Structures are given as structure tokens and as C-alpha cells.
Amino acid sequence: MMLAIAPVIAEAGYECVHMGGGGQISSSMYYFRENRFDIVRLLARAMPHTPLAFGTQHKALGQFEVVPESVRELWMKTWAEAGASWTGLNEFLGNYAEMSPIARLSRKLGLKINVPMVYAITPIHTDRWYTRKAAEIAQALKPDIIWIKDSMGLLTPERTRTLVPAILKGIGKIPLGFHSHCNTGLAPLCYLEAVRLGARVVHTCVPPLANGPSLASALNLERNLSLLGYKPMVNRKALEAESAHFAYVAKREGKPIGVPVEYDVSQATRGMAGGVISNLKSFLAQRGMEDRWDEVIDDIQLMGKELGYPPNVTPYSQIMNVQAVLNVSVGERYKVAPDETIRYILGHYGKPPAPVDQNVLDKVSSLPQARRYLNWVQPQPSTEDLRKQVGLPGISGEELLLRILYPKHHVDAMLDAGPIKTAYPRGDRPLMALITELTKKKDTSYVHIQKQGASLALRRYRSCN
Questions:
Q1: Which residues contact 398 (CB under 8 A, 6 or more apart)?
Q2: How far, in Å, CA of 39 to CA of 42, rounded?
Q3: Interaxial angle between packed helices 69-82 and 383-390, expressed in degrees from 0 to 180 and rounded to the nearest 10
Q4: Residue 223: pLDDT over 90
Q5: Nearest-angstrom CA–CA distance, 301 and 268
Q6: With 90 as the cut, is the pLDDT of residue 463 above it?
Q7: What is the pLDDT of residue 427?
Q8: Residue 307: phi, psi to the nearest 5?
Q9: What is the DSSP letter of 224?
Q10: Cα–Cα distance for residue pair 408/29, rounded to 1 Å
């Protein structure tokens, strides 16, 4: 679907196109039996002058596992070899200086660096905190761009007016980018305010992938910024063609269309990303707990304070979602806790913005399975050690990475599925798409198409042999 429209994407003039990270690898693998790195290679060849970007977490990769440095290096190298040229260094707890080794490796691999600062509404995440952390990023990581990541769609235009100057104060001459989700309907206004205040890169989606819980519409922002006297460095016609293609794909595949939402004040009080909300609803539905939504949400709000105010984004959103469901279903908070909750509370994911509540720390530390993590130190096996662990000494670094981070049966099924299917109709050329689809029908012998004075007839003849 992406490859079909790649020539048009290449004309759009994007600073980069984000290809995702661990979640996109698992989605491609689990649901489509496709290797995400093959997708990156195909797109890199199809639009060689459009930079592709990927995300790198500080501690956890893949299925949110805390990994050794050799795995992180393999992660970076594999993306770079596949064709990515930008990386986002994600450290959502605020321990940015600890990512200096990853930043150095990124430079060594020739990657440009962007660093997101997640926006959250907590007693910790004040303008002063953001100014201090922005300066820390600028000094320790020296990125090519720093951006505001409002993944929970919490920003209002009023709050944007204080946050943007606070971060600009800390980053000096490094460009500022802006990223916000449309959960409350306010994101498009916040984008315009951020640009007015000094942001120079905006993260968008094209309709029908924009709006709703997603990012702001590239078409809407291009038009509004132009009307305000700015000169967006994109090709509007290419954006429209790309949008038309994916609208065609959505209709053909029966997928939902992103639409603007009405303002919902409860969203600001929940402080949850759009993807987190949809995943949690699915999670509750699988367990027949849809009627306990409010209880789970209330538990998550309380847990945020207890766990030191981690932003409700990956992987911390998943950790809190699962723990909240267990708290509500078991009937006693923290009586049962998965390994991820235990490891977060013990600091394996990094130091949280504020100390973990001592009562919660004591209770979770006393759980039987917590014993093996109390004095745990991250092992640092070499790549060759990892090959021995997997038991397949001759595999590529890419396959080794996938086998380390993802379940064996999913990796095997993906590899057995063979090459990715690359043929898909161009949705921005509806007539050609229609003809392509019709020629595939084996039970049709005659087709007549007429539109605006043009007429086309297709007839299938039987072979005499």
C-alpha cells in the first residue's frame, strides 16, 4: 500500500517519513507476516531522496524488554543498513544524559538525531522542568532537532504559549519541532500557535490517517499556515494525491477514516494517549470487563502518582494498563504484578521523574517473583554470545535481532511467508485502479467504462488452443 504511492510521497518534500519502531515491527510481523526492515528497504529504494526515520527507546526495545547494549547497537545498525537515516532517541522518564552513548553510535552510523520531550500534566512537568531538560538534551546529545511530543493530546493553545518559549529557552539554536494528537480536537490550533512562537517542523499525517486519536492533517496545516503567511516546504498536489490513495485503500480494505473530534474535557483529566485508550478498550473487551472502564481509568490515575509520574506513553502506558486491570479484577491493588511492573518499580527502566511511593515499593518488592530482580544487574553478552543463545550461528544480524526481541513462532511464520507482496493499485488514479482490478477478474468477459465523454471497452477472448 505504501510502495504504490511512494513516487508521490517522494515529491511531497517531507523532512522525513517516520517508519516506526518496535511496535510497527511486531504489527507487521504478527498481522501480515511481513518483515518491517524489508518494507524500509523497498521504500528507501523507491524514494531515495526522502529520509526515513525510526525510534529508539532508552532501555526497552521490541516487546518492552530491557536489553543489553549489544542488542541496542544491533537495533541501530539494522535500521541504518535497511535505509533509515534519522533516529528518534526516546527517553520519556527524562534521563536524557544517559543516552549519550546511543547518540554517539547514531553519529557513527551517519544518522541524524531528533529527541522528543513528552508533554504531561503532573506536578513534576512544569515549564521550569522542560527548560532544564531541554538544556540537558542540547548539551548531552547535541541533536539535529528537539521536538515537543504531545502524544496524549493534552495541550491547549494557552498552555502551548508558555511551553514553547520554555523549551526554546533551553535548546538555544537547535530547531524545535511540534507533534500533537487530536484526541481533544485542539491539536490543529496548538500547531499554529507553536509555529507562531518558533517551531519550524510539524509532525503530521495525511487524511484519512490524520485526526481522531492521530496527528493533525498535513492538508489542513499546509492550508492554514499558508493563509497565515508562512511558506510550508511541501508540495500540496503531492499531499492531495497521497491522501486520495490512502482514502482508496481505507475504502478497499474496510478501514476506519480519521475524522476531527469534538472537544472532550475528560481527556485532559485522563492524560492518556489515543492509542493507549484504544488498546485498553480492546484489552478490557478481551476479558469481558468493558463495564469496569471507569474503575480501571481511576486506578491508572492513582498509579501515575504512585509510580513517580511516568508519562502515559509506551512502554509505561502498557505497564500501567495491565497493572490497573489486574488491580481491579483481583480486588486488591498490587497483590499480583507482572515482571514489567516489578522491574519498573525497581528502577530497571530508569529513574522515574519522582520517587516511587514507598508503600507500593515495599509491597511489590515482597512478591515472590520480585526476588530475582532485587539485586539484578543487566547482563552484557556480546553479539556472538547472543548467536549461541539463539542456537543459529549462521543467521544474519537482522534475523538475530528479530529472534532476540520477538517470539520464535512469529519470526518463523514471517520468514516462511516469503517475500512481501508489492503489487497494489494506485488510489490517486481511480480509473487505472479500476481497470487493474477488473483485469484480475477471471469470470468477466466484457467491461464497458464511460466517464465524461471517454469510453473504454475491455473484452476477454477465449484461446482457440
A1: 37, 78, 81, 82
A2: 5
A3: 90
A4: yes
A5: 12
A6: no
A7: 86
A8: -95, 10
A9: H
A10: 11
Exposure class string for 387-411: b at 16+ Cβ within 10 A, else e:
beeeeeeeeebbbbbbbbbbeeeeb
Find out whether the peptide bond into 311 is cis, omega within 30 degrees of 0.
no
- Whole-prediction pTM: 0.89
4-23 residue pLDDT tens: 999 999 999 999 999 988 88
Which residue blocks in 13-63 are alpha helix, DSSP H?
22-32, 36-46
Query: 272-373 has which CATH code?
Result: 1.10.472.90
Which region holds residue 408: left if phi is over 0, alpha if psi is between -120 and 50, else beta? alpha
Residues of the chain with CATH 1.10.472.90: 272-373
**Grid cell locating 221:** 496545516
pLDDT digits (tens, 9 = 90+) for 357-402: 999 999 999 999 999 999 888 899 999 999 999 988 889 999 999 9
Q: Where in the chain is the domain with CATH 3.20.20.70?
A: 2-253
Say which CATH superfamily domain 2-253 falls into: Aldolase class I (3.20.20.70)
Q: Which three cell numbers stand for residue 141?
A: 546529545
Give start and end residues of each alpha helix (H) in 338-465.
Answer: 339-345, 358-365, 383-390, 397-405, 408-416, 430-439
- Distance between CA atoms of residues 324 and 330, nearest Å: 10
Q: What is the pLDDT of residues 400-419, one digit of tens each?
A: 999 999 999 999 999 999 99
Residue bearing cell 477471471: 442
Answer yes or no: are the C-beta atoms of 272 and 312 closer than 8 Å.
yes
Q: Rounded distance, CA 465 to CA 462, Å?
A: 9
Q: What is the pLDDT of residue 454?
A: 76
Could you give the dihedral angle defined by the CA atoms of residues 261, 203, 26 and 377, in that order, rounded to the nearest 10 degrees?
-110
Q: Are 87 and 54 in contact (CB under 8 A)?
A: yes
Q: Residue written as cell 552510523?
A: 109
Which residue in this structure is represented by grid cell 493534552? 154
